[in-house]
Amino acid sequence: MNFRRLRPSALAVALSLVAGLPAMAEEVVVFAAASMKTALDEVAAQFQATTGNTVTISYAGSNALAKQIIEGAPADIFISAAPKWMDEVEKAGLVAPGSRSDLFGNTLVLVAHDPDAAAVEIGPGLDLKTLLGDEKLSMAMVDSVPAGQYGKAALQSLGLWSAVEPSVAQADNVRAALALVSTGEAPYGIVYATDAAADPAVKVIGTFPESSYPTITYPGALLTGAADAADNAFLGAITSDSGDAVFAAQGFRVLN
Fold it and tell me: What's the predicted TM-score (pTM) here?
């Protein structure tokens, strides 16, 4: 609009209209571990309703997300299910200084598709191979995805890995591993307690001793591409009292 060509009265009207325009909504792009989907979607919906900003979230295994960020994928916030992959992003100089913190914790459980499956005590004496029979044990990728790495470490610690390794069906991320059990394609699986809580089609039949695997920690951080107040605000929403309550309700331990 060329304000110089308007009469004074028209100019006043034009300026009042411009002043009344709403601020442009901003987009927050988040890369987050697949296990966070249920809780993070809820926090994002609340944030969008309150602020009018848009939150776009890509969920996958933390390893895949970290590699995408390092290769140049545009993202404002990264939340990993393990410190290792946040470390890789930080080493690449892509974490905004001072923004990284440990947000949440989790636990590992054994889930079954059969709602009548009997509970088991998970320890060195568990005959997991016999429990599986000729069927598969669903897990996230055991050498790269945090949930799979934690699960493999637990089974190794308990002396169960060598017997069940040939029976493991590996999925791209923990939610994909959960889906195999939920649909009955695998009768059993190892997932986070929060994943099990998010799917009524699976039953938790045992909890792994926390001493059997490394502490599960979810670090979060702004990335160097984060350029607006909305990015900071959304990370703050995740760690706010209301955000913490959403994650706690899903079974996460609040660390922040």
Answer: 0.85
Within this chain, do residues 206 and 154 fall inside the same structural domain, yes or no?
yes
From 63, 43, 61, select the one nearest 53 (Cα to Cα). 43
Within a domain: 141 = yes
Domain harbouring 239, CATH code: 3.40.190.10
Count of domains for the chain: 2
pLDDT in tens, 193-219: 999 999 999 999 999 999 999 999 999
- Residues 34 and 76 both lie in one domain: yes
Enumerate the H helices of the chain as residue ranges: 8-19, 37-51, 62-70, 83-91, 128-132, 146-157, 161-164, 174-182, 193-198, 229-238, 241-249
Residue range of the domain that includes 207:
108-212
Q: What is the pLDDT of residues 121-136, one digit of tens each?
A: 999 999 999 999 999 9
Pairwise CA distance, residues 202 & 252, whole Å:
18
Reported as a single tens digit per residue, the pLDDT across 220-250 is 999 998 878 999 999 999 999 999 999 999 9
State whether 243 and 122 are in the same domain.
Answer: no
**Number of neighbours of residue 73 by Cβ within 10 angstroms:** 14
Residue 178 in domain = yes
Two tokens at 102? 């440990």
- Spatial CA neighbour of 213 closest among 138, 106, 141: 106
- Residue 82: which residues within 8 A CB-CB, separation 6 or more? 62, 146, 149, 150, 216, 217
End-of-domain residue from the set 197, 212, 227 = 212
For the record, the structure tokens of 113 come out as: 């598709």
Could you tell me if 179 and 86 lie in one domain?
no
What is the DSSP annotation of 218-230? EEEEEBTT--SHH
